[in-house]
Amino acid sequence: MSEPLQKRNPAVGRGFAKSQTNGGGLQGHSTGARVEVLLARLDGVQKTGKGWRARCPACGGQSRKLAISEGNDGTLLLHCFACNDIAAILSAIGLEIADLFPERVRDMTPEGRRAAQQAFKQTAWAAALGVLALEADVVFIASGMLRSAEVLTDADHERLGVACERIQSAKEVLQ
């Protein structure tokens, strides 16, 4: 039988070796290995549909109240149906919030940094063009109303002002 939860030391045993590079956390492990290390630190782990259930190391008890699963991006998802205290759960097993997320992949070569900057710019440009398309429609509608001698309401004037501000912001992104 395992030790009581309050006396259990998560920093020893299978899957708990502290390394010099990651301080005993999950960073530096592949996604599959990260899950295995996390599961090794929990008691009463049982496989369920798309994840696992385990005893919560924070609130204790014998039932499997802690749900563990993996997100599509490799993020480890935890939820205790009793205490809902992720910080306490992670603290009890010697992990931090950052350990739940996959390590960022960084290309430190000049070419890699340039490619990342270019990808970021292209994303910003696409967003700016989307704003321009929407706000151009607002300006076009207001123009049509004015052309047909309709009076713009205060709300119409306010929305037209917002459109002009957003168009200016998009213009700055595209320069």
Characterization of the model:
It contains 4 helices and 4 strands. By secondary structure, it is α+β, with helices and mostly antiparallel strands. It folds into 2 domains: 96 residues, no CATH class; 65 residues. It has a 4-stranded antiparallel sheet, with helices on one face. α3 runs antiparallel to α4. The chain is elongated.
DSSP, total strands = 4
Distance between the termini: 66 Å
Count of DSSP helices? 4
Please list the strands of the largest sheet in the order they lie side by side: 1-2-3-4
State the major sheet: 4 strands, antiparallel
Strand content: 5-15%
Give the SSE string: HEEEEHHH
Shape: elongated
- Assign a percent range to the helix content: 40-55%
**Uncertain parts:** 1-23
Topology summary:
Blueprint: H1 31-40, E1 46-48, E2 51-54, E3 66-70, E4 76-80, H2 86-92, H3 110-147, H4 154-174
Antiparallel strand pairs: 1-2, 2-3, 3-4
Helix pairs in contact: 3-4
What are the defining features of this structure?
175 residues; 43% helix; 2 domains
Question: What is shown here, in short?
Answer:
This protein has about 180 residues and is α+β, with helices and mostly antiparallel strands.
